[in-house]
Amino acid sequence: MPDKLTVDLHPIFRSDRDIDDAVRKAIFRAAGGKIPLVEIIPGNGSGKLKNRVLAMLNQPHMKKLYRRVEVAPGNDGMVLVHLK
C-alpha cells in the first residue's frame, strides 16, 4: 500500500472539468484504498488553480473524506490532504 497519492494538475490546468474530476478521483481512490495522504500540485502561478482546488475540497461531501488540508510547508505550489 502506498503512503501517498500525487496528482499533478499542470497538464490539465486549462480544463475546469478535468481539474475537478482529477482531484475528486484522487480523493475517492485514496479514501477507498486507505492511503493517508494526497499531494495535489497546482503549482505556484497566480494562485487561481490552488484556490479552485481548496474551494472544491471545502465542499461538504468532500470534507467528510479527509481530516485536514494544508499548503505544504515551504512549497506554496502543493496542497496536502490528510485523509481519515
UniProtKB/TrEMBL annotation:
Pfam family, one: Smr
SUPFAM superfamilies: SMR domain-like
Domain called Smr: residue spans: 1-84
InterPro entries found in the cross-reference section: Smr_dom, Smr_dom_sf
Protein's UniProt name: DNA mismatch repair protein MutS
Source species of the chain: Amycolatopsis panacis
